[in-house]
Known about the structure:
The protein is an alpha/beta fold. It contains 8 helices and 5 strands. Helix 2 crosses helix 3 (47-71) and helix 3 crosses helix 4. The chain starts with 6 loop residues before the first strand and ends with a helix. GO terms for molecular function: ATP binding; magnesium ion binding; shikimate kinase activity. ATP binds at residues 14-19, 120, 156.
Amino acid sequence: MQDLPNLILVGPMGAGKSTIGRLLAAELSREFFDSDHEIQARCGADIPWIFDVEGEAGFRQREAQMIQELTEQEGIVLATGGGAVLSEENRRRLRERGTVIYLFTTVEQQLKRVAKDRNRPLLQRPDREQVLREMFELRDPLYRATADVVVRTDRRSLRAVVNEIVRRVQRLIDPLQAKA
């Protein structure tokens, strides 16, 4: 399946972008990148620190630069941060430089998955559920507008999600082969 383009995962925090991305990359023998992890490695600081020092706007600038760099590569699997789609420039780059897969999950599932996570600056408030609902209202239409494929991750095994992504992306590339 080396004829597949870059595969780019978008979706909210807790959707499984990093975990599914690693498995997908292994399945396809591709290099995996997580834009948030790459930003942290380059800065030598974690995302909460970047938010504290530079604010969300500073982080978003770093994110846009990282997405530009990573999407210039070929044959990769890329997991983006949940807010990457907020920038029209990022959305355009993602659409132009790969097949975009929206990993859809419900707010209820997000709450379960990020319940103990303290590394998410936008959730360091007592009203986590309300924050996630507001983000969903804003971001879900952007994820959908950017994505070539939408895959639901709730109550599904990681393997089932990876298999569905491979099958559906292959169908985009070669509809006749996918039916065989």
